[in-house]
Amino acid sequence: MSTQLPPDIKEPQDPSTSTSPSFERWRHSLALFTGMGLSPAEQEERLKLQDAGKLEKDWDKCEKWKRDLSNYSPIVSFLLNHLRISGCAFPSSSIQCHPCPENRAGGFAPEHGILLCQDRFFNKKHMEDTLAHELIHAYDHCRFKVDWGNLRHHACSEIRAANLSGDCRATREFKRGFYAFNKQHQACVKRRAILSVLANPSCKSPEMAEKAVNEVWESCFADTRPFDDIY
């Protein structure tokens, strides 16, 4: 009996040797997923796709947490309300999520608003502390007309932000590796204020940063506005 196929029926191809466009697309997608059998150019493409996917996921999470905190966090809602009362309403568009370098969680710039480092938060509580910290800077800029190039002005706002935001609560300090119990909160506030002032372009040395913080310490640590007490 003849085993020849009718002319309108083609011998099925071995998928491993197929060169059809659909097979190539499938093979390429699988290789991108597994990372196996990729050329150097394809490896680079895979890394770019992974980075893009991570950036999108980080941004989505940051935006969701930002909305949740703006609506439901007592400290964030309180600060946003006091900014409105002070004539400096802070819209959601002025709080931006972006990727950042290491060792930074957020920032405030009068001309741009607040930066939230979408890839640097351990959890939502960490973001809450960071957002509160930056909102205190925004409040100070609104109420007290801070000159950020003046190290004493900058030091005062950093003292207040570290003191009032929750940034120096005991659990945060423990995670940073600081275990002292005697006046640990004050030590944390001073340490973090000095580090922030040291990053000011007007600050030329650690001694200048420490001097600025020490000069305004008593009055600024005691100033809890707009709170009645340390949060």
TrEMBL record:
GO biological process, any:
mitochondrial protein processing
Q: Which UniProt keywords apply?
A: Hydrolase, Membrane, Metal-binding, Metalloprotease, Mitochondrion, Mitochondrion inner membrane, Protease
Broad class of where this protein is predominantly found: mitochondrion
Q: Which InterPro entries match?
A: Peptidase_M76_ATP23
* Classification via Pfam families: Peptidase_M76
EC number(s) of the enzyme?
3.4.24.-
Q: Where in the cell is it found?
A: Mitochondrion inner membrane
Enzyme category, top tier: hydrolase
Q: Where is this region: Disordered?
A: 1-23
What's the protein's topology in the membrane?
Answer: Peripheral membrane protein
GO MF terms listed in the record are: metal ion binding; metalloendopeptidase activity
Q: Which GO terms describe its cellular component?
A: mitochondrial inner membrane
Role this protein plays = Has a dual role in the assembly of mitochondrial ATPase.
Tell me the protein family, please.
Belongs to the peptidase M76 family.
Kindly provide the name given to this protein in its UniProt entry.
Mitochondrial inner membrane protease ATP23
